[in-house]
Amino acid sequence: MAENRVGDAPSLWHVSREAATASWALGAILAVLASLIIAANVLVAIVLLCHIRKSGSKGLCFVLNLALADAMVGFTVMGLAVDELSQPFHASQKFCILRMAFVTSSCAASILSLILVACDRHLAIRKPFHYFQLVTGPRVGLCLVGLWLLAAIVGFLPVFILRFQRISNHWKCSFFNLFQPSYMLTMSCLGFFPALFLFLYLYCDMLKIASVHVQHIQEVEQAGLGGSCPPPRATSDMKAMRTVAVLIGCFTLSWLPFFIASTVQMACPECFPYKVIENFLWLLALGNSLLNPLLYSYWQRDVQLQLSQLAAAVKRRVLLHLGNGRCFPGRDTKAPPAVSCLELQD
């Protein structure tokens, strides 16, 4: 009996060492991903806030909210990364449930913000003459308040409905250690898939409108009424069509595998193990929060101009700071004609 225990000890130590290495690797990946998400979305939020204050555009408030929601995703994921890097980590059941509720609420707010941005752009294309009458400050604020309330309800649903919780003594705070599969099924069927279908419908309808505009312009050119160069509207519509295709593809490829695997896992636990969903598919879904600021903000000319102005202001401030030094006279400082830095050192 003693020989078996002695013989099993190295094997158990080897398994625990492998688990610790895997936990550290996952924590490092989560930390890097969360840092990139926070940095990108905070920068975009600052740029959008400056642009909204100058232009007064109400529709950009939805994009600003998307950046804030994705930044919140990064902050909540950073907490999970710290837990992975500080193993062994022993937390209570209530603490883990609250932490995962904040993660779920942030992800839900990000997805709902995508829907609001899609609705705003769809309305701008469908009713361009009535857009500014429909999209007012109070209505935008009401939509944003409703979005965060709905995201909080979705995320904190297991806190109020105890049958969605799973009693587990496992040390790791994760979805499948804390929540019942019925909660994941509820989020998939009542939350994600309807939102995905609405998202696809709105953007496909915008794609249809853009293709009609391009077709009309081509008919005018064939009739000899247009110039030799393609009009700017045709170029912008073609760019919009490519942008829509990238948006749909990135959102679908990021979130769809996670929700499909979570749903199928209830009927076939061997098809998608928990570790595959949590360590790989969920990381893919989190990558959408890093792509959103690039897709929704950096491709807009106004935001690009604001970014260039911000970079120029930072560069000018740095040069001014260096110019105030002893050996780097500024623009307004007249340097002594006969004294150099080497002479001062001598």
UniProtKB/TrEMBL annotation:
Native species: Geospiza fortis
Topology relative to the membrane: Multi-pass membrane protein
Keywords, sorted A to Z: Cell membrane, G-protein coupled receptor, Membrane, Receptor, Transducer, Transmembrane, Transmembrane helix
Name of the protein: Glucose-dependent insulinotropic receptor
Chief location: membrane
One term of GO molecular function: G protein-coupled receptor activity
PANTHER family reported in the protein's UniProt record: G-PROTEIN COUPLED RECEPTOR
CDD domains hit by this protein: 7tmA_GPR119_R_insulinotropic_receptor
Residues of the G-protein coupled receptors family 1 profile domain: 40-296
Transmembrane segments: 24-50, 62-82, 97-119, 140-162, 182-203, 243-260, 280-299
GO cellular component, one term: plasma membrane
Subcellular localization: Cell membrane
Pfam families cross-referenced by the UniProt entry: 7tm_1
Similarity section: Belongs to the G-protein coupled receptor 1 family.
GO BP term, pick one: adenylate cyclase-activating G protein-coupled receptor signaling pathway
